Amino acid sequence: MKITEIHAHYVRIPCDMGAPVDDMGGISFPTMDHLLIEVRTDAGITGWGEGFGHSIIPATLAALESYIAPWFIGKDPTPIGALHRQAQQAFHLFGRNGPVVYAHSGIDIALWDIAAKRAGVPLHRLLGGSSRSHVRAYASLLRYSKPEIVARICRDCVTAGYRHIKLHEIDTAAVLAAREGAGAGIGIANDVNCPWTVAEAQAMERAYRPAALAWLEEPVFPPEDHTGLARVRQHGATRIAAGENAAGVHDFRDLFERGAIDIAQPSVTKIGGITEMRKIIALAEAHSVELLPHCAYFGPGNLASIHIVASLATDTMLERLYVTLAETPYGTSMDAKDGMVAVPQGPGLGVEPDMRLVEKYRQGRISKIS
Ligand SMILES: [Mg+2]
3-120+355-369 is classed in which CATH architecture? Predict the structure, then answer.
């Protein structure tokens, strides 16, 4: 089998953020943008993947078109692990994190989709199998800042059946309002996206304690200051999560060896695809670190994340961004019901995109590399 063509579709879908745009506090997505990557083979099997993401998609697309996709054309997609290693070596001088790796991640996901389709099994069967028909999801909120809006949206999440919520708030008042809105017994985490020095992070960790957070995510800037993050964890009383900005399995090894995190959050569309994820999953298990994939998407990256979560030995949660898309090429297949998302059981990723909707929401031309 050979890879014959790689097509990329830059899709932009309007979405309802749950609050008016003027009430958003700095993290808002009036549209949800995806880079869908379609890998075609001479065997007639097509795989789908997704490269990160949001406003950096044009750069990921440029990396894909100029170097990453042409490198894969003509290659046999079957030996995924060896191909991944060769690709990493071929691409390493262009950056070990960022758009080059995001583009490679999307192709790697598509290769796993091809492998599972060829075997006629859902992807999770190739990852160790799963006895779960559904995975638990947590509602990952945007940043609203105003305490009354945070409290209202947390109440909405609980009404919708979620038992776990993640905020993206900075102000202590907004964090404490979430606990008021959700009530006791609901897991509330807070993701602050790398704003602070170590000393500031330590002070904020203390300030948030009345909210009894399930974890505090990425409190320290820069994300590669693993030693600083370890100090926050070792002197604090809150579990620490990070990893969506890590560069591959070796960055995770350093995070683990320094005792920097309780929860590892690799992102399948950023870290190097499913192949790199599998290495990190094994390493996290060896270091007794919990693994909760980062996953704020609605395309093949989310489907891959569902299969990954379903195949883990522990009962892990899926991140589900709390927005409502106008419509999606994947229909209702990834919707959460009572806080649970169904594990696709069809071959490969298990759901094929509706090309009519891909075309409806595509930005510009299809990018075709052959
Ligand atoms: Mg995060």
Answer: 2-Layer Sandwich (3.30)
